[in-house]
Amino acid sequence: MELINIKGIGPKTLELLNKVNIYTIDDLVRYYPYRYNIYTPSNILDASSDDTIVVTGTVTSNANVFYIRRGFNRLTFTFETNNINIKVVIFNRDFYKRLITIGKTISLIGKYDKLKNNFVCADIKFKPILKTEVEPVYHMVSGLSKATLIKSIDVAVNNSYINEIVPSNISSKYELMNTIDAIKEIHHPSDSKRLKDATIKLKYEELFEFMFKINLIKYKNQIFDDFVVKDISEEMIKKVLSYVPFDLTEDQLSTFNDIISDFKGIKRMNRLILGDVGSGKTIVSFLSILLNHECGYQSALLAPTEVLAEQHYKNFMDLFKKLNLNVALLVGSVSKKDKEDIYKRLEDGSIDVLIGTHAILEDKVVFNNLGLVITDEQHRFGVNQRNALKNKGMFVDVLYMSATPIPRTYALTIYGDMDISMIKQKPSGRKDIITEQYKFNDIKTVMDSIESQIKEGHQVYVIAPLIENDDEETNELNDLKKIKEILLQYLPKETKIDILHGKMKNVDKDSVMNNFKDGNSDILLSTTVVEVGVDVKNATVITIFNAERFGLATLHQLRGRVGRNSLQSYCYLLSDKDSDRLKVLCESNDGFYISEKDFELRGSGDLFGVRQSGDMVFKIANLQTDYKILLQCKKDTDVFIKENIENDFANYKYYSNILHCLMENN
Predict the structure, then answer these.
(1) What per-residue string of b and e applies to 463-479 under the rule 16 or more CB within 10 Å gives b?
(2) Chain-centre distance of CA 607, in angstroms?
(3) CA angle 14, 18, 19 (to 5 degrees)
(4) What does the DSSP 8-state code read for residue 466?
(5) What digits encode the pLDDT tens for the residues 594-636?
(6) How far is the C-alpha of 654 from the C-alpha of 637, rounded, in Å?
(7) What is the DSSP letter of 493?
(8) What is the pLDDT of residue 239?
(9) Given 3.40.50.300, 3.10.310.10, 3.10.20.70, 3.40.190.10, which CATH number is that of 434-588?
(10) What is the pLDDT of residue 191?
């Protein structure tokens, strides 16, 4: 049934419904109230002047309207309740005048001033409220009345087939209300308990459908008709772990065990390691490469920049140089001759591990037996780029890494088609970074600390919000030029300062970054382009100018540029403005705690700069308040897919068609 075929919906009403994003029958019946007014009758004698009360009584005079100015009027009349005759005032309701007649029984909602015997109304109900009532409140548009909306919803509910989305066995397990009754109850609440039951059902239904789509996509991406299981023994695992000259944290071991289970499984690994800055994600990925090599496969590690790729290559070679693995580095600056040699050795299988940048994605790069692809800072690469590397082998396991901690709630939705491992613990010996906020009047204190650290042989990051400021009249210290002048004003003349920003050519950015990494400059003055993941162990201070301009995620990532060793490190936030975000950063070094606070402060819309196409807009569910329901839906859809799809290919095809329809509708 089309909307236009519903009795009472003509072209004009249809146009108004479209304005509130109602285009289909399903949109209409699921146009849920955004809140409810609960009206409980009160005794006016017991009310205080601050209470909003509901009283029922009789009109004792005709209404008068006083027009104060255009668009603003006051309606007054007298009203008797509990043998008290009171004066009633309500603003901008002049259209009520004809409805207010002497002797009529009505209910008033508002506040009563006993001293003045005056009742100021928020609303008037011409159907008396004699017991507690729950009234739905909708987002409306001018021209569309609530009565028309409700009537249209009722006709649609009574004359159209509404599907039960939640499987019957799950509905029975949780004693969920059926969908039609839940929809009726949500629009016409009979009592608080049934309204709560209806709300739970519709929230569960919405999140179940969402997680079903996510998990089915994940299953489709992972399944192979004849996937080759990697043969892994306990001896092999012990051997690989023995190559690491230090103890792993519990989180690192847990994540490595997740990867081992994926290797042993009959589906392609599609796992994301979410790890806080400095938590040791990279060593886990290196262990995965070694294990993959023991199984007889090649590995590829993709990094977003040459500096980071070179860092991974150097660290891997330093850690495992005794193993005689053939490891190659493929980046844009490699000579044509060396590239041709790498291509040849990759294809004949003599290269075991390839580490590089986008250069790995070129068609000329052909692997002999690729079994594992690792993508570092995966959000820097598009889906097509990641798939291009994954498709360079027949049965490739895929591992992603991200240093952007986000709440698990949000991770389930953004990365719902991946399995997720989280690394929160930091390796032993790492000290928490001391984070402090300073006003610009105290800038000398910050500069003295910077000078002290440089004298001790350490290095410093200084972050500017802008490359340059077009407003010459402002005295704000917010661009590279002005901040450099400040640094030169307070620090010794021999201080070596390098500048890095996004408008520089890649080759120049890499040169500056390498110069700082090699210890040839004291201060790297940069915008936020300073690379995530680059490991400069000698850097012990980061100072961020106008810190209030940055989001919590950016501030936390920037802070992670220091504290990469056992030395005490410092983060100074320069800002004259008090900010909840800055307070959160000063009180904690835990990126996941910070992400939760960011979630509270900003909601889910653009959390940590990660905005998805068709961002998650739920009609009744709320990720912040319905976290437990979301987790339960994830578990239930996992079980449902395993029981109904994995073991039955006919069902797989059937549910794939359902998925296609769901995606088309959304």
Answers:
(1) bbbbbebeeeeeeebbb
(2) 4
(3) 120
(4) B
(5) 877 777 766 544 433 333 333 456 899 987 788 789 889 988 9
(6) 16
(7) T
(8) 94
(9) 3.40.50.300
(10) 85
